[in-house]
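Board notes (copied after class):
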Amino acid sequence: MTVEDGRVYLRSENSVGWIIIDRPRKRNAMTSRMWTALADYVLDACSRSDTAVVALRGVGGAFSAGDDIGEMLSISTPGEADRFFERVARAFEAVSSCPKITAALVEGPAAGGGAEMLLLIDYVVAVEGSIIGYPEIHIGLIPPILLTWGPKILGARTARKLALTGSYLQAREALRLGIVDEVVDTPSEGKKRIMEISLAAAGLPRKAVSAIKSLLPKPAPSEIHSALQTLKLLVLSDEAKKRMREFLEKRRRHEN
């Protein structure tokens, strides 16, 4: 695997298990291999007795731009689509089912699958100037977690608007809507807040935390499966392929 391919890794610091998304040249866009690693490390961190909080963050001034568009464009068969989105679903399920308190530190853009992860996390800290959005509609796709879980936590009208417009939110607007729990001025302040949350969480009874997490509402697997089935069909459609090619060409022109 090259640096360009990206990586995800686990770094333990005091009682925080930091899951680091590291592909800065692509704004931490997630390949299928990275989704697999994310699920593995989340499951690992969530099972550790010395971990009170499992926290996600990106490097290089971005949280995550979501799925790698180039890899999705290369999907040409239903079987390939199944394998790709099964890895995505496994990562979402690992985050959603974690018995520990989960957190995210958002700096820069969180888009698509990156923004959808935030809907599954217990406490989201965003740095001022960060942007959060669900732009899948612009490339002929849908945001499955926003459409299945979003209406329950954000309200149906808000989820509908975000999905149909594909627009981005500034950090404080995301705070107002409930996607973000706190906005801070700098990344270092955000990390400090998560460390403070972890310090407080470390003093809580672990079995009670786990019991609360198990009883809180979660996305229904059947709903997510249905939404992903629709997404699999769309990613193979001519319309989505055309829009994904246009997106990549526009990005290449911008980079040059």
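Comment from the instructor: The mean pLDDT is 95. Residues 3-187+207-255 form a domain with the 2-enoyl-CoA Hydratase; Chain A, domain 1 fold (CATH 3.90.226.10).
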